[in-house]
Design a protein that fits this description.
Blueprint lengths: L1 E5 L13 H5 L4 E4 L8 H4 L3 E11 L3 E10 L2 E12 H13 L11 E9 L2 E9 L3 E2 L9 H16 L13 E2 L3
Parallel strand pairs: 1-3
Antiparallel strand pairs: 1-2, 2-6, 3-4, 4-5, 5-7, 6-7, 8-9
Protein name: Protein kinase domain-containing protein
Length: about 180
């Protein structure tokens, strides 16, 4: 069982509104849902801790945080943590499982799926590798090489029979080869 630790988040909202983190921060422990397809990294770590550092995306469906995965004396690993409706997060985790051949190359490594019941809600917590640089500009302002890399990544995902429904730049990290 992994433990959860949190640090104050960088507020990007002028007026506070409840987020999944408000529920998540009241939990002291998370139980890993063993779906046998997450990366073996978590199994190797003794007493892993998920430390949330920054809220980077939020909407009505899920919130995404940047943080670290730490364990004892091992080096911390940069991660992205997505927290939202349990069924939707589980569906997303299953998509990652189906695309495991692209982990670490085209899509982030899926380190694990957690389940969290707090404040009467069942939440899914997806722990992913922090992957590439977030695209925070219009696609038209990317260089030809960046556009080509992004298109190749989309084609690799499509080659596995996956259709991407939300090709917004904010949803992509770009790791140039």
């Amino acid at each position: 069982m992994a433990e959860l630790a949190s640090t104050p988040l960088i507020s990007k909202i002028s007026r506070h509104r409840p987020t999944y983190f408000d529920i998540f921060s009241r939990a002291s422990k998370l139980g890993l849902v063993d779906l046998k397809w997450s990366s073996p990294l978590l199994a190797k770590l003794s007493k892993p801790q998920v430390i949330l550092e920054e809220l980077c995306q939020w909407n009505g469906k899920a919130n995404v945080y940047y943080g670290k995965l730490e364990s004892g004396g091992a080096d911390a690993i940069d991660i992205a943590v997505k927290i939202g409706d349990h069924d939707e997060i589980t569906d997303e985790a299953l998509q990652y499982r189906d695309m495991h051949s692209l982990w670490g190359k085209t899509i982030p490594i899926c380190h694990g799926l957690y389940s969290l019941a707090a404040a009467g809600k069942q939440l899914g917590v997806l722990v992913l590798e922090r992957f590439g640089s977030t695209i925070d500009c219009r696609l038209s302002s990317l260089s030809r090489m960046e556009k080509t890399t992004l298109l190749n990544h989309v084609l690799e995902i499509h080659s596995l029979g996956k259709i991407l429904n939300d090709l917004q730049p904010r949803n992509w990290g770009l790791a140039l080869d």
